[in-house]
Each structure stands twice: as structure tokens, then as C-alpha cells.
Amino acid sequence: MSWSILVLAGLFEVGWAIGLKYTEGFTRLWPTLGTVAAMAISVGLLGVAMKTLPVGTAYAIWVGIGAVGTVILGIVLLGDPASPGRLVSLALIVAGLIGLKLASA
User: Which of 98, 4, 95, 99 is nearest to 46 (CA)?
Assistant: First the structure.
């Protein structure tokens, strides 16, 4: 159950990272409120997951999900570049996350 909570926390991290772009420097009310809510939910779920998961593993997985998801949505939604170097780097992050999961099992 803790792993599912951690993945959900990572998805909310993606939400607030992308949400930051839409707040336009926290000048737009609704995107700002949504972003702040996603931040609180993400960190709250991370805390719950850390009750039973190792702190280093949980934090690294959380950050990794956030980083990979944010880059992918940046490419899809915001037109960020999808260069081969960026995609290979994403694959390496995913490989590291899988390695952390397998090493903590």
C-alpha cells in the first residue's frame, strides 16, 4: 500500500510542478490554488508513505516520478524539446527508479 501512496504522491508532484507554469508567478488565482493544493497533497502523501518505506528510497522515487512526469508533460503540453539526449536521460532516471524499487524489496 505504501508504494501505491508514494506513486500517487509523485503524480501530485507532477501536477504542482506543471501547475507552477500556469500560475504565471502566482498571479492567477485558480491555478495558484490548485498548485498549492497539489503541493500539500503530494507532501502529505509522501509523509504517509515514509511511515513504512526507507526515507532515501521514498524521497528518490517521489522526486524521480515528479521529474520524469514533469518532463513528459512539458514535452506534450508545453512544447519543450524532446531531443534524443533528454529522452535517454529520462530512460536512465526510470532505470534508477526501478533499481531502487528492486533493491528495497
Answer: 4
